[in-house]
Amino acid sequence: MPYSIKVEGDKYAKAFGRDLPLSLKDSVNLCRALKGMKLDDAKDFLEDVIKKKRAVPYFRYLDSISHRHGIGPGRYPVKEAKHILKVLENAEANAENKDLDTDSLYIMHIAAHKGRVFKTYTPRAYGRATEIRRDRVHIEVILEERVPEEE
């Protein structure tokens, strides 16, 4: 599966998380909150979400989402934060392998896409069966090295 945007050059590092057992709706909102952040700030933000110190502001799928102080509707998607943190660490390792400066890395692109659906069946009473659907999510990250401008 290719990335949704094409970048060329030696100042980019990419990582992809495939078929992660996450909620698509929570992943979309978390990716929107992370886009454009500096890599170190994004990792700190995700660790705070895992500890439930900072909430993720929600912009989509807002039905019955409680408001949080200072940000409006938001939640603490801990499971999604753990998986996205791993993907960000993979992208950082790829950047180190390409000899990029990890202190000047920014999240240029991060997105969540719908993955495969695994279907299984569980037996029920009177000879029936119920379908169990396990949805998966793909996470893609592209980091960009931005050189600070000297004045």
CATH architectural designation:
Alpha-Beta Complex
Q: What general outline do the C-alpha atoms trace?
A: globular
How much of the sequence is in beta strands? 35-45%
Average the pLDDT over all residues and give the rounded result.
94
The helix content is 25-40%
Count of distinct strands: 6
Tell me the strand order in the biggest sheet: 1-6-5
CA-based gyration radius? 18 Å
> Which superfamily, in CATH terms, is the homologous superfamily?
Ribosomal protein L22/L17
User: Mind telling me the CATH class?
Assistant: Alpha Beta
What is the string of SSEs from the N terminus onward?
A: EHHEEEHEE
Poorly predicted runs? none
Major β-sheet, in short?
Answer: 3 strands, antiparallel
* Total count of helical runs of at least 4 residues: 3
Cα(first) to Cα(last) distance is 42 Å
Could you say how many structural domains there are in total?
1
Structure explained in plain terms:
Helix 2 (39-50) runs antiparallel to helix 3 (78-97). This protein has helices at residues 24-34, 39-50, 78-97; strands at residues 12-20, 56-57, 67-68, 72-75, 105-123, 129-145. The N and C termini lie far apart (42 Å). The strands form 2 sheets. It has a 3-stranded antiparallel β-sheet. Strands 2-4-3 form a 3-stranded antiparallel β-sheet. 28% of the residues lie in helices and 35% in strands. The mean pLDDT is 94. It has a single domain (13-145), classed as Alpha-Beta Complex (Ribosomal Protein L22, Chain A). The chain has 151 residues and is of the alpha+beta class.
